[in-house]
């Protein structure tokens, strides 16, 4: 009885020691603990099983994204008893992975904003178990902005022109700065509208109105910056003024039309002046002649008076 009891005790004790050893494990999982993914790109969360003994065979691999509670954990990849269970968009990074391949890295085929979070990789082998966690942040960059204007073309000098600078794809509200071709900063005169689009991304549209645009300032540049002030894109826009030679033709026409109306004015004017001069001269002469007849008439009257006196 006593020998049997002591044997049982030893057996239990040995089992405990074995358990303790196996939970300590002859395998280790080495992963980079932090990853920064980029929206729309593929990403590998790298994990390697490091065996401390030879001939380790993997029995189970589980990759999950951890939720707020264990119930919200999302299984992304599960290998168990030679069977693979994958969530679309996730797979082993090694194209033809098998149980003897210690590279258990996870591939995200198309990184989304929603993929950010904490990931857990669990590996069970015939020589022990191992677990590691990785935190993933995802950023998205603004695309090169596109620019347009209202009106688009044939713009006249000294009219107001509204220029747009639009960009999409950032993961936070960004900024848009404006400059003219001489480097003056016009950002204060611009209006920025930011909108959240699908999958947690943002679109920016900045509106800048050039008051009384002139063809000596045609080239405007806008720069897109992320929330940290780093430049992510830039574009330039040239205001499409009405062709200049049309303008000089109009000037020429002006000169031609001026001479057209000036000539008759000069002719008519000189004619009028001539006529006036002639009229004046004629009046003066006739006035002189009138005076002469008058005196003659007076003389006549006097003569008549003399005659009557004589009568
Ligand atoms: C590992 O496996 C090889 C071949 O399968 C065998 O020759 C070797 O003895 C094994 N080593 C250990 C430590 O089990
Ligand atoms: C694991 O596999 C991936 C995909 O083939 C590879 O990019 C990575 O470098 C491998 N890691 C190591 C440590 O070999
Ligand atoms: C930029 O956005 C504004 C306002 O949404 C729009 O009117 C304009 O056409 C857009 N321009 C370009 C080049 O996308
Ligand atoms: C341009 O102007 C904006 C708004 O005043 C300012 O925040 C920004 O620092 C300026 N940028 C440069 C390069 O001067
Ligand atoms: C407009 O200005 C930008 C920045 O100064 C320059 O890179 C670009 O070549 C200019 N475009 C034209 C058509 O002059």
Automatic annotation (TrEMBL):
Principal localisation: membrane
Pfam families reported in the protein's UniProt record: V-set
Membrane topology category: Single-pass type I membrane protein
InterPro entries: Ig-like_dom, Ig-like_dom_sf, Ig-like_fold, Ig_sub, Ig_V-set, T-cell_Activation_Regulation
Biased composition (Basic and acidic residues): 291-300
GO biological process: cell surface receptor signaling pathway; cellular response to lipopolysaccharide; immune response; negative regulation of T cell proliferation; positive regulation of T cell proliferation; T cell costimulation
Signal peptide (from-to): 1-22
Record's GO cellular component terms: external side of plasma membrane
Renumbered residue ranges of the record's region Disordered: 291-311
Domain Ig-like: 40-137, 145-238
Chain segments annotated as transmembrane: 261-282
Sorted UniProt keywords: Cell membrane, Disulfide bond, Glycoprotein, Immunoglobulin domain, Membrane, Receptor, Signal, Transmembrane, Transmembrane helix
Compartments, record wording: Cell membrane
Coiled-coil annotated spans: none
Glycoprotein as UniProt keyword: yes
UniProt name for this protein: Uncharacterized protein LOC120066591 isoform X2
Organism in which the protein naturally occurs: Salvelinus namaycush
